[in-house]
Design goal:
By secondary structure, the chain is an alpha/beta fold. The protein has helices at residues 4-7, 22-30, 45-48, 51-61, 69-76, 124-135, 137-145, 151-159, 167-179, 184-195, 238-253, 272-283, and strands spanning 12-14, 35-38, 41-43, 66-67, 87-91, 101-105, 113-116, 119-122, 202-209, 212-220, 225-229, 257-261. Helix 6 crosses helix 8 (151-159).
Length: 287
């Protein structure tokens, strides 16, 4: 009998694509030598249990299958979002394979997908739109904060997916995000700035540092002070933590002073007028 490597050179094999192996693969699955990942798709046990094995299996099971929603977000842009136990997929055919996937009958345009280890996955802007019914505007704020999408890209994806249930709310959120802060904490922070009499700042101010683009929650251009409002629920991941520190160093390298406030330290904004006055004195010592 041929070795497992003959049947699964990459750890995963579709019996449909290699019908001469179907009987042997099914027999090996019965004996526990291979694992059935999806109907007719088998993998070595250690591969079948991995994200990589699952993606390869989805790609082999059907080229018209597309990973959507939380699984797509975790795989493409939201790196500290936990992958769900059941992955949601889209397919124009009416299928129900089981095995830890739930399939919605839906056609996803090819330009709204990308490839991850052989499987089609919705691009970030579409996964954001898909998650709005579940997470409402929080998911938009999250993607914007991570610089993984733009409002323009979200609006284009929305135009490319017309007549979907929930599009009215999606349009409402994107319209609000064009003019509003990118998080609920930012909203509170901006109100707090006004409460202490500070109005000479710009929300979501764009700064370019050696090719990296950052958007400051509230920028005092004259004093070069960047005020950032950091929520914990969506920004507590390790990657986000390190990215924020790199951001602070990049801003400091061109003369900006980054100041970070959380929902527990917004009261410290009261010190900001003194900090701004001192910055003006340091930046303009002759005055």
């Amino acid at each position: 009998m041929s070795s497992l490597a003959d049947y699964l050179p990459e750890g995963v094999m579709s019996a449909r694509l290699a019908p001469e192996t179907a009987r042997s693969l099914n027999s090996r699955a019965f004996r526990g030598q291979v694992t059935r990942i999806l109907p007719g798709v088998y993998g070595l046990p250690e591969v079948a249990a991995s994200v990589e094995g699952r993606l390869k299996a989805i790609g082999l099971y059907g080229p018209d299958l597309v990973v959507t929603r939380k699984a797509a977000a975790a795989l493409t842009w939201w790196d500290d979002l936990e992958l769900p136990d059941v992955w949601e997929l889209a397919c124009p055919r009416d299928i129900n394979p089981g095995y830890g996937v739930s399939v919605e009958q839906r056609l996803v345009a090819k330009h709204l997908t990308t490839k991850v280890l052989g499987a089609s996955v919705t691009i970030p802007e579409l996964s954001v739109l898909d998650l709005i019914p579940e997470l409402d505007d929080d998911v938009v704020y999250e993607a914007l904060r991570r610089r993984k999408v733009t409002i323009g890209a979200l609006e284009r994806a929305l135009r490319d997916t017309p007549r979907r249930r929930g599009n009215a709310r999606r349009k409402e959120i994107l319209k609000a995000c064009r003019a509003a802060p990118w998080s609920h904490l930012e909203t509170r922070g901006h109100l707090s700035l006004r409460d202490i009499g500070l109005t000479d700042w710009i929300a979501n101010y764009r700064v370019n540092v050696n090719g990296s683009v950052y958007y400051l929650d509230a920028a005092f251009k004259r004093e070069k002070v960047a005020v950032e409002f950091d929520g914990f629920q969506f920004h507590g991941g390790r990657d986000s933590f390190h990215a924020d520190r790199k951001r602070d160093v990049d801003l400091a390298s061109i003369g900006w002073l980054p100041l970070r406030f959380t929902d527990q330290t917004l009261d410290s904004l009261k010190a900001l007028p003194r900090i701004l006055a001192e910055r003006r004195r340091l930046l303009n010592p002759e005055h």
